[in-house]
Amino acid sequence: MGGVWGAGFWGLVGGSALLLGAGVAWVAALPQRLIAAVMAVGSGVLISAVAFDLMDEAFRQGGFAATGAGFVGGALVYTVANVLVSRRGARHRKRSGNNPVEAQPHASTDEAPDTNTGLAIAIGALLDGIPESVVIGVSLLGGGGVNAVTVAAVFLSNVPEGLSSAAGMKKAGRSAAYVFGVWGGIALMSGLAAMLGYAALAGAPPELIAAVTAVAAGAILAMLVDTMIPEATESTHDYSGLIAVMGFLSAFLLTKLGG
Fold first, then answer.
1. Which stretches does DSSP call E strand in the chain?
2. Measured between alpha carbons, how far is residue 250 from residues 6, 41, 242, 256 in Å?
3. Residues 6+ apart with CB under 8 A from 32
4. Phi, psi of 47 (to 5 degrees)
5. What is the pLDDT of residues 65-118, one digit of tens each?
C-alpha cells in the first residue's frame, strides 16, 4: 500500500500501539520489568532505524550540510518542547511502571494534578509521535514499500507510553470513554502526520527531504535519550543493554534483508 493513503494507514498502525497499551493497562497490571524490556527492545530498534535508515538516507539525498543541520535542529526543537511538557508533569510519560503519577515529584494525591499529569503525558506522546509518523510518510516517497523497521520501532516505543498514561488517567478517575477517546485521537493524528509528511514533500528537492528526515532523526534520538532509555533501565538495568542490543541487531538484519 502506497501513496498518501498508504502513508496514513502505516502512521495509524504505529499510533495504534498507544491504544493497545492503554487497553492492556485498563484491564491488567503488567510487571514493570516486562514493560521496561519492551521499551529496551524498542530503543534498540529505534537507534538502528535512526542510524541505518534515516541518517544514511538523508546523507545520500542531501549531503552532510542539510543532514547535519536538520539533525541538530530536530534535537533542539524536541528538547525545548520536551522541557515544556516535562514541567507540566510528563517527564515520566514512558515510565515502565503502571502509575507514572507517583513518579512526579510535584504531583499530589488530588484528582486534578493526576488528571493534568495524564493529559501532559498524552501531549508528550503526541510530541514524540509526530517526527516518527512524518518519517513513515516520507519513507513511501520513493514509490517502494513502507520501511518495516521504522514502523516496528514506532509501534514498540508507543506501547509503554499508552500503558503509562492510561494508568495515570484511570487513577485520576477518568472514564474509559475519555481515556480511549484521547488515545484514539492521538492515533488518528499520527496517521494524519504521516499523510501530511508524504503530501507536503512529494516532488520536493532531495535536499529538503533529507533535511526533514534528519530533523525527525534528531528528534527521535533526543527522545530516546531523554525518555525511553532512562525508563527502560529503571527496572531492567542489569539486562537493558543486552535487550537493546538484541533489538538493534534484529532491526539491522531486517534492514539488510530488505535491501
1. none
2. 25, 9, 12, 10
3. 96, 97, 98, 234, 235
4. -60, -40
5. 999 999 999 999 989 988 888 777 666 655 554 444 444 444 333 333 344 555
222's CB contacts (< 8 A; 6+ apart) are: 74, 75, 78, 79, 82
**What is the pTM (predicted TM-score) of this model?**
0.77
pLDDT in tens, 124-147: 777 778 888 888 888 887 666 777
* Rounded Cα–Cα distance for residues 105 and 166 (Å): 19
Residue type, 99: N
